[in-house]
Write a structure and sequence with these properties.
The protein is 40% helix and 17% strand. It is of the alpha+beta class. The protein has a six-stranded antiparallel sheet.
């Protein structure tokens, strides 16, 4: 691995110690197994003493970790930094980029993020004969009724859920089928975690069936957003059809998560 020559860029003088530290990080990151100091020193052409100093500094800063055999791996701080960067990517941009590489959708697909006890819709893709939905881009709807909301709330801890809904029997209701009590919502969130996807069956809009799944980014244990597929609820949707929609929305969410490193 060739180190940067400070004379490679006219008018610019890199700091040699930083150049060497970056080379060490690149080298360790390129290996599938922990790396010995002797390998680092030999392959990078650096004196063993200065390589040790660099590694100790990187370990102290959390950029490298050292195990009981004194071998080095990438540290948790690198993962966290990457996660913060990826989380800052425009979710809507990633959403559309992923869909541009897939066959046309048969059902309306939406992207949303959690904002307190509501979800805010960021983007939508729909077929030519797509459903007319009230969840336009930029609009907020109750998280407890929507499939995207329930997909996100399913990954929120119980204390946070109770702070969002302090009154057990006063949840927002968009239709008569909306969950109206906190115990009912908590049970629905438990079922969502078991299935992997959420279900909104005429809870937000009468006659609309939607399934949702969370999106994850690298380094985040909580979802950064969620997607939902919506179709007409004709009152007699077979279990197999619902499971097919659930599998599809999970695949879409996983593809978006993959682009975010999740």
């Amino acid at each position: 691995m060739k180190l940067l020559d400070p004379g490679d860029q006219a008018g610019f003088a890199p700091v040699p110690a930083i150049v060497r530290a970056v080379a060490v990080l690149d080298y360790v990151a390129s290996k599938n197994l922990p790396v010995r100091l002797s390998s680092l020193s030999k392959d990078l052409g650096l004196p063993k003493s200065s390589t040790l100093g660099i590694c100790r500094t990187l370990v102290a800063e959390g950029l490298l970790s050292q195990d009981s055999r004194r071998e080095y791996s990438i540290g948790i701080r690198v993962v966290r930094l990457a996660g913060r960067h990826l989380a800052g990517l425009d979710l809507a941009q990633v959403f559309h980029r992923m869909l541009d590489s897939r066959p046309p959708l048969q059902n309306t697909l939406q992207l949303a993020v959690l904002d307190g006890s509501h979800v805010v819709y960021l983007a939508r893709r729909e077929p030519a004969n797509g459903l007319r939905l009230p969840s336009t881009t930029g609009r907020a709807l109750p998280a407890s009724t929507t499939s995207v909301g329930k997909a996100l709330l399913a990954h929120v801890d119980s204390d946070r859920i109770r702070s969002l809904y302090p009154t057990d029997d006063d949840l927002p209701r968009s239709t008569p089928r909306s969950k109206s009590t906190l115990p009912d919502l908590i049970e629905e969130l438990r079922l969502t975690r078991e299935r992997g996807y959420s279900i909104d069956r005429s809870e937000t809009v009468h006659g609309v069936l939607a399934v949702g799944a969370p999106i994850f980014s690298l380094g985040d244990s909580s979802p950064v957003g969620a997607v939902s597929l919506a179709a007409a609820d004709e009152g007699a949707v077979e279990a197999g059809q619902l499971e097919t929609m659930g599998a599809e929305v999970l695949n879409i969410a996983r593809d978006i998560s993959a682009l975010l490193g999740g």
